[in-house]
Amino acid sequence: MHFLPPLTLHVFRFLLKSLPTLLLPIWILFDVSTAYMASQAAQFVWKSMKKSDEETKNIGKLVFNIYAFNPITIVSTGILSLTVFQNFCFAAIFLLFVTDRPSICAILIGSWSSFTIYPFTLIFCLVFRSNGSKLKFLSFVTLGLISWAAFFGLNFLLNGGNSNFVEPVYLSILFFCSLKFSSIQPNVGIYWYFFVQIFEHFRSFYTNSFVILYFFMPFPITCMIRKDPILHFTIIGLLASIFFPYPTLNQVSLIFAILPLLEVYRKHFRYTILIAGTIVTTIMLMPIMWHMWMVSSSGNANFFFGATIVYNVALINLVMDMIFVYSRRQIDLEYSDTLKKDTKMDFAFY
């Protein structure tokens, strides 16, 4: 399982000892702040698209409400889930990204990645803020790495000058199925059941394959989606949630909240109802399947795994549909003069 760095442990030890009655208000404050930053980012995006003031206010309210009144978000806040702080960081990065403050954005990405490595792929989004300059993009990457190193050093000092936290904090994420970290707890991710079932001598191969796949995917996505930073940011954030070894349902709550910003692609989406229905259905089935497996013993692990794998397949299909709609719209823009209403186009995305 994934462990927490020394800085996080020190902060929460202080909160538990000194301010135990303020824990829930602190979580609520962070959650409301996340919704507010997401709404401000949405309004800024709408203003840049020269929308009216009324439309700008409406999109801000919509994004705020989708996140703040999401049942998963409310429950996660009520149980004091750490994903509340992850969503806060994601919203802050998104706000800095759309308001064109890439240096601060890179520093925040590096800082967040010092707690869990996977968000560092968001650094690829800063390609859109480098104005085509490779040197400028590399400077953003360097800022992120320096920020990561600074927090790593702080964790090192707080741990008494001992680096024994590296393996449980970082390697437990990258090599979550290694022999040393073999306690793979059931979760809503796509990995746990797979690595429980495979033979032991295949674990290293599949572990390296999954890690390489995750950190390689941003390269082709960045090369393909070159003209829409918001869509690119959404896809990278969604992939970080899908391929995280120890995910929760709340990790995609903020991404769902900013989906209305992709309104320009709305007519091109093909499986909106199917994907939305699948996500809602599987989320409702997960606690039922868990109860049948762990409590009533009327089912087995396949019941819960079946719901989680269908949930993740729906998220992956959402990513594929986003890539499709981008390509479809680019064709409309580039060949609008030659295309007619009855023109039929076949795509080999599936």
Automatic annotation (TrEMBL):
InterPro entries assigned to the protein according to its UniProt record, in alphabetical order: PIG-U
Protein keywords: Endoplasmic reticulum, GPI-anchor biosynthesis, Membrane, Transmembrane, Transmembrane helix
Membrane topology annotation: Multi-pass membrane protein
Pfam families, A to Z: PIG-U (PF06728)
Keyword match Membrane: yes
Subcellular location: Endoplasmic reticulum membrane
Native organism taxonomy: Eukaryota, Metazoa, Ecdysozoa, Nematoda, Chromadorea
Biological process, per Gene Ontology: attachment of GPI anchor to protein; GPI anchor biosynthetic process
Major localisation: endoplasmic reticulum
Protein's UniProt name: GPI transamidase subunit PIG-U
Membrane-crossing residue ranges in chain numbering: 22-46, 67-98, 104-128, 137-158, 170-193, 205-225, 231-259, 271-291, 303-326
Pathway: Glycolipid biosynthesis; glycosylphosphatidylinositol-anchor biosynthesis
Claim: Transmembrane helix is one of the keywords in the record: yes
Cellular compartments per GO CC: GPI-anchor transamidase complex
Family the entry assigns: Belongs to the PIGU family.
